Amino acid sequence: MIRDYFILAWREVHRRKKRSFLTLLGIIIGIAAVVSLITLGQGLENAIARQFSALGNDKLIITAKGSALTPGLSIDAVKITQDDLKLIDSLAEIKKTAGVIHSYARIEFNDHVRYFMVMGVPTDPDERVLIGETQNFHLLKGRSLNKGDLNKAVLGFEYTRKELFEKKIELGDTILVQEEEFKVVGFWDRTGSPPDDQAVTIPLESYETILGEKDELGLIIAQTQSGEDPIIAAKSIEKELRKSRGVEEGNEDFLVETPQQMAETFAVILDIVGLVVIGIAAISLVVGSVGIMNTMYTAVLQRTKEIGLLKAVGARNKHILLLFLVESGFYGLGGGIIGVALGIVFATVVESIFVLVVGPAFLEVEIKWGFVILTVLFSFFLGCISGLAPALKAAKLNPVESLRYE
Amino acid sequence: MEMKQALHREKKVTKKKPLLALRDVWKRYLMGEVALDVLKGISLEIYEGEFVAIVGPSGSGKSTLMNLLGILDVPTKGKVIIDDKDISTLTESDLAELRGKKIGFVFQQFNLIHSLTALENVVLPTIFQGIPEQVRLERAKKLLARVGLEQRIGHRPNELSGGQQQRVAIARSLINNPSIILADEPTGNLDSASGKQIMELLLQLHVEEKKTIILVTHDQSLVSHAQRVIRIKDGMVEKVEIRGEK
Ligand SMILES: Nc1ncnc2c1ncn2[C@@H]1O[C@H](COP(=O)(O)OP(=O)(O)O)[C@@H](O)[C@H]1O
Ligand SMILES: [Mg+2]
Fold first, then answer.
1. Which ligand is in closest contact with the Cα of B64?
2. Minimal CA–CA distance to B214: which of B75, B29, B21, B76?
């Protein structure tokens, strides 16, 4: 017979459309915020996970501690070197290694000076595959770096536009990196990630001469022999590096990680951001909830006489309680449905804009129906809970007093 | 007047046990510091099938008395007995259930729910008794036909005249097949033609269905139909007149 309560409550909500809509507004905003922010956060996480998994499961990434997430900014940090790379390469579990390094550098062209990321990369074809250059970067025009290239550069997509230096850079042009001349031999196609699209790729050897200490590397990627467990390989790399660098276990000044572990590190950071975001959304939900409570108190007051009548025709306190709970639940449900829909629309629009402006690499929005249904249910219960105090008040009203109420 | 003759042919249906009884009932309202005794020691008995009129000046306590008879309220002092049960032994929830099953209210102000249609208003009391959907819809339609509103079942109260609204209210009071109908000035807000229709309906219920009817009214012509007239003054029973066949 719960259906009857739904019908009765619905009639009332329907009759007061304007007030109902205003009540819904708070919940709609709160739920829309929760849904769009969570969906977008998830989309970010998806994209990052995909980027890392593109590296493959048989790869290990070795970095100096603290530098992985802020490449080039860890000025005082201990470095990873060519010696480390040679050591790792010599291990039985490891098939191949490659090192890269990057930092921000002064770039000059057309009498303009700007600062962008410069990547020092190996020129050996196998090593280029290993660092993922071939997966993530595709040539737009010109050529990529070849063995023996010195003072040659391949530029990111953005340099093909005139915005960066008020003038397009063409193949064969010369740019200055840290006041050293480099000849542009190629351009990468757009990747969608702004730092990558603004990067200058030069050979490791050239990087060392203009930017680095000798033999210094930003990170090493090591590929395990097929059939080796990457976790075990990581352990043995850690052991050897501890020995050669003279550090105790637990005090390592370096990190050996699988792409998955790195992705998880990012996920943790995103989760923290997500918590903050959910906190903000929770505040708007509280506001919405207070709105429902307020509306329901008003409804109880306005319908005091009706409540008296219901009691006169045999409604018990629990019936009145249920009736008002269902009504406030309706507000939660309605706000939830509209809010979820708006949230999804918003997230999708943001994704489209993102793809349009910066490319597809950073956001992969995915609608999870389980999450949608859960959110709507949550909103329904939030409505019920918001209406609890007013409903209890209604249930406890004295029938005679209520009938006399004008 | 067929109805009146029918009424007079009626045998007095008093049985040994009263359906409802008040024993030295007091009702006191506290208004801040001041205590107001609205009912001052009323004792009376209502028997099954009776038609009782309660009359008296405005403010004399008639509505308060009706609320006690309808177990919508409890006395400050004294006993209210329904079906041999002292209501002071019952819980609020028991009283609501008993009220829903045994008593039908008809108010001066109709008290229909505005968001519901005539049919839904009539069905309303069955919701709290858990009566199956099909049964209650049929019953409600029958009752609306009986009060002459079969053409109006989908109308909202604000689309009905006062007389029609009161007829919906009467249909509603009958839906759970109660034995007692309490009507507190049911014609007080109606023109005389509509009032007369309502009165005929109540009489019909009394004669044809042996419903016990307790009626508060100022209308002398209505009072004349009652078998017993209880005159209230200042919270006390001033006089009881027995009419019709004794
Ligand atoms: N809930 C209440 N609180 C205070 N006073 C009340 C209440 N109900 C009734 N009264 C007072 O009791 C008196 C009798 O009221 P009522 O029973 O409605 O009289 P009647 O129906 O005969 O006109 C009136 O003076 C009224 O103001
Ligand atoms: Mg009155």
1. 1
2. B21
Answer whether A312 touches B (CB < 8 Å): yes
Choose, out of B128, B134, B168, B181, the residue to mutate when testing the contact with A (most A CBs < 10 Å).
B128
Whole-complex ipTM? 0.91
Residue pair A62/A237 in contact by the 8 Å Cβ criterion: yes
| Interface probe with B: pick from A303, A307, A309, most Cβ of B within 10 Å | A309
A317/B96 Cβ within 8 A: yes
- The pLDDT profile of chain A, 406 residues, written as one tens digit per residue, is 688 888 888 888 888 888 888 888 888 988 998 888 888 888 887 877 777 776 777 888 888 875 444 444 444 557 788 888 888 888 888 888 888 888 888 999 999 999 998 988 888 888 888 877 766 788 899 998 888 888 999 999 999 998 889 989 999 999 999 999 999 999 998 887 777 888 999 998 888 888 877 777 888 888 888 888 888 888 888 898 888 888 888 878 888 888 777 777 777 877 787 788 778 788 888 988 999 999 999 999 999 999 999 999 999 999 999 999 999 999 999 999 999 999 999 999 988 888 777 666 677 788 889 999 999 999 999 999 999 999 999 999 999 999 998 8
Euclidean distance between the first and final Cα of chain A, in Å? 31
d(CA A305, CA A316): 15
Strand order in the sheet with B77-82: B34-46, B20-31, B77-82, B85-86
For chain B, which residues make up each domain, given as ranges? 2-14+49-74+101-242
Mark yes or no for CB contact A12/B115 under 8 Å.
yes
Give me the residues paired with residue B221 across strands. none
Q: Is B64 in the pocket of ligand 1 (CB under 6 A)?
A: yes
Chain A residue numbers touching B97 (CB-CB < 8 A) = 314, 316
Residue B27 Cβ inside 6 Å of ligand 1? The answer reads no
Residue showing tokens 């049929």: B138
Where are the domains positioned within chain A? 2-51+263-404, 58-257
Fold for the domain defined by B2-14+49-74+101-242: Rossmann fold (3.40.50)
